[in-house]
User: What shape does this take?
Amino acid sequence: MRYTYYPGCSLESAAKAYDISLRTVFRLLGHELNELEDWNCCGSTAYTSVAETTALAVCARNLALAEQQGVDLVAPCSACYTVLNKTDQFLREQPELRSKVAEALGEAGLSYKGNLRIRHPLDVLMNDVGLDAIALKTTQRLEGVKVAPYYGCQIVRPERSFDDREVPMLLDEMLSSLGATVVDYAMKVRCCGGMLMTTVDDVALKLCSELLQCAVDSGADVIATTCPLCQINLEAYQDQINRRFKTKIRIPVVFFTQLLGLALGASRAEVALDSQLIPFEPALAPLAEAVHV
Amino acid sequence: MATAVAVEGVGRMETAEHELRRAFLAEVEEIPGGKRISRCLQCGTCTGSCPVSYAMDLSPRELIARFRAGDIQSILSSRTIWICASCYSCTTRCPAGIKVTDIIYALKRMALARGIRPSRYPTFAVAESFLDQVNRYGRMNEPRFMLGFYRRAGFGRAFKAMPMAVRMFFKGRIGIKASRIKGLDSLRKIMRRAEQLEIGVEHEVTGEIAPVGYGVVAARPPRAFPAASARTQA
Assistant: This one.
């Protein structure tokens, strides 16, 4: 299958590993990801907080460009995924906003008709590619790796979700089909705090500490995320969390595509293992020899 | 002296509050299903589902009650709207189908447009720095965005983040070079036209005109942030 790919700003820097491993996974599975030519920022939640019509118009430029490609758009960043989908929904349901945004897009000779599906790679990998096809290409089963799947807020909420909103299972299913031990983990859709880590860190540090502790207590050796912001919040602030809450948490946090890539036989570099702040070799001990390519 | 006007279904309220109400209802109108706010049961599912309600001065349930009681001014000066992390738990679970998260976004817009910039809750700095990035490059460059944030919110905050930033840098996770999109001119045209069509541009509130030209981050006079309500943190 062919897809248009919308990396989003985070995947250009802090979440490079997500970009690299996602491209690897699609290549190994034989599906095409074509980066959307000249995409712009989705506007994120920050733009919505300031000016609604402008936020929608900024985002709609991407929708208009992607629609011309005629295939589904894949957005791995949870925030981009939600903002792109919400923009599409607002434009379909609010005729007044639709005409304003159409007028704004018209300034650049663009138009959006509303014939685009915006999808998360987890949805595509589970529902288009399927576990059978993934199993056929799996060369390194993740036997013995204990994973806490973390979905975060934005891909199962708020609106049209491809999985259950309260107890999503697709990532659990994918990881266990790869041979990993998926731990039972009560906080898989609990919020990590998002941008609060920047604005009101007292609150975000508490949320992250609860999440991390829950994963550790459930017996996980690694957390698999689907979102760049969750990944940073959960991985990069563990020192601060430990100091503040007098804990000794140290658990690697990876993108689910990094684990999937390893299972499909990718090398360390092909899933950007070296960009982790907390090395996750200890979690991979059960398959140590095979990973050191 | 505060003037008052009669408002149908609500009674008499101060002119300032009346204007806020008009502006708020215009915002709500733009949210798909936004009018369901009138169906609120005051059941408190939103507050119970919210992972950060413990840190708010007004709970999400109380926020809707205050709007009904004709007290939007107290909502705009609460810390609640800045504490919301936009996780949509409330929206997902509301039995009346109220889009609580989107309503809080509308309130954030109203507060920012009225120059409310609380230094302890610097969402305004995130928003302005972010818009600045989109306007300059069409994309957000993370390190430049953070610099812009610290410039507005105070460099004291940067201090805590330094050790982490250094480690990120050595892992190649900080891309200094901003990638500028080729269609920046056309994106700016889209933004300028959209700004002219914002509802904020039409309504005039408490004698001030809501600022125009968000995309270029119009200079707004900083205004003292009203003290959060007396209720203390639970």
DSSP finds 14 helices and eight strands in chain A. Chain A has two domains: 2-119, 139-291. Chain A touches chain B through 71 residues (CB under 8 Å). The longest strand of chain A covers residues 146-150.
